[in-house]
Specification:
- By secondary structure, this protein is an alpha/beta fold.
- Helix content is about 35%, strand content about 15%.
- The longest helix has 11 residues, at about 55-65.
- The protein is globular and about 50 Å long.
- The termini are far apart.
């Protein structure tokens, strides 16, 4: 691929795929993700998920912290429909493919997938990461997939969030202008 490819020419095929950006992680469908990152594997896999509607420094810090817990980081992104069910009819602000592509461009993200359910519990049950990460705004009993990860010998980690950094707060500040 020509590194001068216009942004509008890129696609969500990920690393090595037609139209992918140099150095970007692949955006994979569920079956391909499980094929590449599921068990058995020879590396420590970390999984986290979220809407990631307006990516900000707090997201970056949480994702960096998650990646530090293993050898590979896979990020699940709520689909547009799932986001509407969870956040309301005005959301998401960015499409699922845009949100996935932005996350895939982060150097510490190894793969991204989009899921349509309200939680990624089924996906986590198939992937069985070694470490399941969520923000400290959750409690362990609220983390989807925690039971299956623990039953498979994995761990659940709640990473500390950066105070005052959230998409909702960002939206409030933008609307106040």
């Amino acid at each position: 691929m020509n590194w001068r490819t216009r942004i509008s020419d890129s696609s969500v095929t990920g690393s090595g795929g037609k139209g992918s950006s140099p150095g970007s992680a692949p955006v994979l469908d569920r079956d391909e993700l499980v094929r590449r990152y599921g068990r058995p594997r020879e590396f420590r896999l970390v999984f986290t998920n979220g809407v990631f509607d307006l990516v900000h420094r707090g997201h970056v810090a949480s994702l960096r912290a998650a990646r530090s817990l293993g050898d590979r980081l896979v990020v699940g992104v709520n689909s547009d429909e799932s986001t509407r069910r969870l956040k309301g009819s005005q959301r998401p602000y960015q499409s699922e493919s845009d949100r996935a592509e932005i996350l895939a461009a982060l150097r510490f993200v190894d793969a991204v997938t989009i899921f349509g359910e309200d939680t990624p519990e089924e996906l986590i049950g198939r992937l069985l990461p070694d470490v399941l990460v969520k923000g400290s705004d959750y409690s362990e009993d609220q983390v989807a997939g925690a039971e299956s990860v623990r039953a498979a010998g994995g761990e659940v980690v709640l990473v500390q969030l950066e105070p005052g950094l959230s998409s909702s707060e960002l939206v409030r500040r933008i609307r106040a202008e």
